[in-house]
Amino acid sequence: MAGDFRLFIKDILTIKAPKKSPLALRMIVLTFAMLCGIYICSICLKQISSRTNIGFLNVQVLQRPCEPHIIEPWEKLYVHYPLPQTFSRAECRCHPVRYFAILSTQRSGSGWFETLLNSHMNISSNGEIFSVKVRRSNISTIVETLDKVYNLDWLTSASKNECTAAVGLKWMLNQGLMQHHEEIVKYFNTKGVSAIFLFRRNLLRRMISILANSYDQDAKLLNGTHKSHVHSPHEAEILARYKPTINTTMLIPNLRQVEEMTAKALENFKSTRHITLYYEDIIKNQTKLIEVQDFLKVPRMDLKSRQVKIHKGSLSQQVENWDDIQKALSGTLYESFLHADYRM
């Protein structure tokens, strides 16, 4: 009996471990699975985000600047792909554009020459922009204006916009060009701007044209309006009726002054890529226009102008004091101006 009692007491004192609840185990497993799921989802989200960024980078690569066409190494400076702010070049975005400037003097045929260039479907020459004084007041305003022109953001009736292949302007030597020539030469050479010099050989004819044009600014012979250039033979005939009187005392000094100015311009801009043309040569030889198109690297086309020449024929019929002019120039370096003639 004593043994049985001890066994009974031992069973009472022995503490048995309780059985684990199945619900608790399930909760632990569920919690662990949720944590694993959250971790896996976070990794997936990071990968998706990374792939999205790569996609954006690929889009940016597609918008990179256009690759230059196959050109000579020396030409690379003169080939541009402008991104205008005022419009989109659309399908012409990767068509190269070349920059130019027509450098000339008043009444040297530059207006007529510019209309010829603008008759080309791929050339935009924006006129005498620096005739407005504020645009040439200092080098900063000059550069700002040039940047706008060459970025295709200077919109005029001559602008070809999207498919322009050559863009430029007409610039007279006395419109800040000579005053700031060092900075402008640097700009041309840095930006890859080609210069087209256009002068007249017969400076006497140029002088007659200047005097007649100056007179019409006040007289306004065409129904009270002044026109520097005309598009009908009738208008040209009316303007040609005026015959100026030339001051023979100042004739040779004036001719020499213009000659020296053009020579100085050629000297100042000799380091730029340039071509030199003369009004008379273009009239006599139309292949000169082909040379210009080749110089600008545009397709060759037949160029046209609606302008009508005002002063034609013999010089003796265009001035009042022809005898005095003959005496003043005979035996001088400028005597050839009395005889040089051409037809248009």
Commentary on this structure:
By secondary structure, the protein is α/β, with parallel strands linked by helices. It has a single domain (73-338), classed as Rossmann fold. The protein has 12 helices and 5 strands. The chain has a 5-stranded parallel sheet, sandwiched between helices. Helix 4 links the parallel strand 2 and strand 3.
Indicate the CATH class. Alpha Beta
Mean pLDDT: 87
Portion in beta strands: 5-15%
* Strand runs, count: 5
Query: So what's the overall shape?
Result: elongated
From the helix content, strand content and strand pairing, which structural class follows? alpha/beta
What is the rounded distance between the termini? 152 Å
Main beta-sheet strand count, sense and barrel state: 5 strands, parallel
Please tell me the CATH architecture by its name: 3-Layer(aba) Sandwich
InterPro entries: Nod_factor_sulfotransferase (IPR052796), P-loop_NTPase (IPR027417)
Keywords: Membrane, Transmembrane, Transmembrane helix
Protein name: Nodulation protein like
Transmembrane segments: 23-45
